Amino acid sequence: MTVVDTTPATLREAPIPPDGMYEGPRILRRVPEEWEERPYERFELAPLGRVIGAEVRGLDLSRPLDPALREELNRALLEWKVLFFRGQHLTPERQRGFARHWGELETNPLLAAGTSEDVVRFDKGSGATPTFENIWHTDVTFRTRPALGAVLQLREVPPVGGDTLWADMAAAYDNLPAEVKDRIDGATAVHDFIPGFSRFYGPERLAPFQEMFPPVEHPVVRTHPETGRRMLFVNTSFTTRITGMERAESDRLLSFLCRQAHVPEYQVRFHWQPGDIAFWDNRATQHYAVNDYAPHRRVAERVAIEGDQPF
Question: In the chain, where does DSSP find H-type helix?
């Protein structure tokens, strides 16, 4: 006779670290639930990721945008968060003209300028002062009104490497545990330019800008002004602490929140060719420029569009 062991199975104690990242299904919602899906009539859209990133085909960005085309591109930007345009080879003037359809252009005195003060030039490998963007970040959150978005064009690409990744911070928020959402609902955090820029500039270079860019507070979870989606709005480069929390608690929570950008399901990765353009929604994303191409040169020019005050 076979004897069946009915003793309940038990497992040894093996606790995992708190605030860990876990496997399993994730909520991958590209747009708000009430979003009206409509076809694009003026161009072809080729998705590169599940929730973020699409290539726009069939457009010459050197030609003026009429209001209807601008509306379609803006709808695509809200839906996909970052748009890619291959082989445009725009002059800086044309690049600036395209970006101006979304607002006034921003200047950044902390970075090297190109042909005008509202064009930032990243010239890597030519002996210029190096800057480092190989960290997940949202641009200029140390401003009261961080940039709405940015238009980046690669002028020269290395033979290997130099990709850029973007992460959808609405997807990152959607997948937070309920108890974490409760903790950060209504919370604010301090943002400061010094942590991000002190990695490559000394005090003598940064001190003159302290009055121009004092620390600012933004919501830990901001609401997108056009889509209404809630998004994580903290980043490793510029967010220093959560207001009203003890330092140890703030550091632990910020570390957990910033790690959400690292999840591949929320990301898209783009491999550049000369003349390619990326146009991203800085309100809804973080990005990471992969620094794996030394000693080769990589030259990019970026124009940024003035944004609104997060709420």
Answer: 67-80, 92-99, 169-174, 178-184, 193-197, 203-206, 247-259
C-beta of residue 125 within 8 angstroms of C-beta of residue 296: yes
Please name the residues in contact with 128: beta carbons below 8 A apart, sequence gap of 6 or more.
Answer: 112
Tokens of 225: 């002004």
d(CA 9, CA 85): 57
Please identify which of the residues 224, 229, 287, 298 carries the catalytic annotation: 287
Catalytic residue among 139, 192, 276, 281: 139
Please check whether residue 263 is in contact with residue 21, taking contact to mean a CB–CB distance below 8 angstroms.
Answer: yes
pTM of the model: 0.94
Catalytic hit among 30, 137, 143, 191? 137
Specify which residues 56 forms β-bridges with. Answer: 45
Q: Has 94 been annotated as catalytic? A: no
CA distance 284 to 65: 24
Q: Percent helix, strand, coil in the chain (nearest 5)? A: 20, 25, 55
Of 53, 121, 60, 64, nearest to 98 by C-alpha is 64
Query: Across the 311 residues of the chain, what is the mean pLDDT of every consecutive 10-residue run?
Result: 74 79 90 93 97 98 96 98 98 97 96 92 78 92 98 97 98 96 97 93 93 97 98 98 97 96 98 98 98 93 98 98
137 included as an active-site residue? yes
Residue 271 falls in the annotated catalytic set: no
